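Thread amino acids onto this structure.
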């Protein structure tokens, strides 16, 4: 685990990009309910970019931000796979 944190510390730009991409994915799949106008969408992404800087700081201090976002996205994929198989078999999710 320390080797992974050391790698993230040595590659700050890649770490920032991973955090921003993961946050954008979570936003688009969980929190986005409808399509917003262009300026509001741009404002949301600017705020997410600023939030990514804050999370990058937490990552550099030693908190596992990238790992937590990876786990969250993995769980989201598992739910999608489950819904796919339930829809394919004809069962309805509860």
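Threaded sequence (94 positions):
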């Amino acid at each position: 685990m320390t080797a992974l944190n050391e790698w993230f510390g040595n590659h700050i730009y890649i770490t920032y990009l991973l955090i921003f991409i993961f946050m954008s994915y979570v936003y688009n799949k969980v929190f986005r309910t409808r399509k917003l106008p262009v300026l509001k969408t741009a404002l949301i992404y600017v705020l997410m970019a600023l939030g990514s800087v804050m999370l990058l700081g937490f990552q550099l201090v030693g908190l596992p931000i990238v790992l937590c976002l990876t786990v969250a996205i993995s769980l989201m994929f598992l739910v999608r796979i489950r819904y796919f198989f339930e829809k394919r078999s004809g069962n309805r999710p509860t």
